[in-house]
């Protein structure tokens, strides 16, 4: 929340400029929640097949600095699950063999899959409801992008920073 007019004396009402900036900020928040998930997504570049070994998944995550990757079925290439860095940590905590275990054996099945035009507020609500941090975005030709909870944070944090910079100037 932004405190418009926080630099004013407590008994002095905010000026017109501060009030307009606050209204703009609220409208911007409302507009963001009506945006579609495609506005937040990262284009999908990497995925792994169900038969990839866990060692191969680890190599991909490490080499490409990824925190998660969709697991795809071989026929249509649809996402059937996801593997995250925390899944890899849990895998190793169980002393399992990465060279002989496969992605299908450890992925989290039934990921959230959202169409490009799905409103971000609906995706966010579903992520919270299911307690997940990753979403696969699809279009006509299958997987087209990915979204993580960090993408939401980056979007709203950047917006808040820019609004605070604009509203932090003292009034004249």
From TrEMBL:
Top-level division of the source organism's lineage: Bacteria
One matching Pfam family: CBS
Entry keyword Thylakoid: no
SMART domains given in the database record: CBS
Span of domain CBS: 41-98, 106-162
InterPro entries: CBS_dom, CBS_dom_sf, Diverse_CBS-Domain
Keywords: CBS domain
SUPFAM superfamilies given in the database record: CBS-domain pair
The protein's name in its UniProt record: CBS domain-containing protein
């Amino acid at each position: 929340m932004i405190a418009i007019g926080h630099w004013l004396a407590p008994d002095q009402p905010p000026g017109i400029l501060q009030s307009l900036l606050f209204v703009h900020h609220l409208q911007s928040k409302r507009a963001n929640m009506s945006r579609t998930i495609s506005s937040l997504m990262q284009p999908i570049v990497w995925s792994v097949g169900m038969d990839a070994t866990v060692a191969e998944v680890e190599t991909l995550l490490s080499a490409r600095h990824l925190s998660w990757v969709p697991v795809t079925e071989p026929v249509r290439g649809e996402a059937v699950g996801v593997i995250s860095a925390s899944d890899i940590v849990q895998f190793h905590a169980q002393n399992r063999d990465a060279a002989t275990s496969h992605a299908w054996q450890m992925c989290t099945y039934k990921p959230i899959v959202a169409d490009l035009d799905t409103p971000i507020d609906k995706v966010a609500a579903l992520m919270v409801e299911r307690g997940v941090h990753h979403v696969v975005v699809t279009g006509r030709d299958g997987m087209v992008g990915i979204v993580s909870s960090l993408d939401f944070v980056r979007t709203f944090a950047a917006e808040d920073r820019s609004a605070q910079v604009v509203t932090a100037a003292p009034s004249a």
